Amino acid sequence: MTRQGWPAPDAATPLVGYREWCLRGLEDPVPELHSLFHATGWPSDGRPTAAACLRPATWLLWPRSDRRHAGVPDASCECGIHAYLRPDFASFNGVREPKVRGVVLGWGRYVLGTVGWRAEFASVAALLADDAYAPALDLLAVSQGIPLVTDLRDVRLAMIEHAA
Questions:
Q1: Which residue, 154, 146, 107, is CA-closest to 13?
Q2: Residues facing residue 24 across a β-bridge
Q3: pLDDT value at position 99?
Q4: Higher model confidence: residue 61 or residue 122?
Q5: What pLDDT is stored for residue 58 in this prediction?
Q6: How far apart are CA 55 and CA 147, in angstroms?
Q7: How far is CA 108 from CA 25, 68, 111, in A?
Q8: Which of 38, 94, 139, 152 sits in a 20 to 30 Å window from 57, CA-based?
């Protein structure tokens, strides 16, 4: 089965992970989630996102692999949609924009690490409510059908309630 034309997960249970995004467009009709490190945004219509290798072809001295690889993510690269295994990860410094945390579901090709994973496809399962950005997060949650939770550890309950 596919969701809006995206490949279905290979396994019955997707990977569950935790991540952080930049929250952009706080004054826009619908704010958007963007990567902390790359000029990439997540789909603003609630669809899953697909990973792409963003390693420039000019990185000739990359120590672990050729410049190209067959699939994303690849163990010889750092590409893929990143997520942590646990909700209590350290926040990234140096990002000037507002940040929001949430829970993602990953599937397709993946690389599992000791503190997280990188996947080929991912979708946002829940966002962490934050009073500082409440109006923007409310708009984002409603427009994309994403539940807001007060604690990332409560996401299982929020997902069950959302599915009902």
A1: 107
A2: 32
A3: 93
A4: 122
A5: 44
A6: 33
A7: 30, 19, 10
A8: 94
The share of the chain scoring above pLDDT 90, in percent, equals 47
∠ Cα 18 155 92 (to 5°):
25
For tokens 């427009």, the residue is 143
Query: Residue 60: is its pLDDT beyond 60?
Result: no
Cα angle: 29, vertex 128, 85; to 5 degrees: 130
Angstrom distance (rounded) from CA 160 to CA 132: 26
DSSP 58-100: T-TT-TTS-S--SSSS-TTS--SEEEESSS-PPPPSS--S-EE
Cis, bond preceding 48 (omega within 30 deg of 0) = no
pLDDT at 122 over 80: yes
Cβ distance 36 to 22 under 8 Å?
Answer: yes
Confidence category of residue 158, pLDDT binned at 50, 70, 90: low
What is the rounded distance in angstroms from the CA atom of residue 15 to the CA atom of residue 13? 7
User: What's the rounded Cα separation, in Å, for the pair 158 and 154?
Assistant: 7
Helix runs in the chain, H state only: 134-144, 155-163
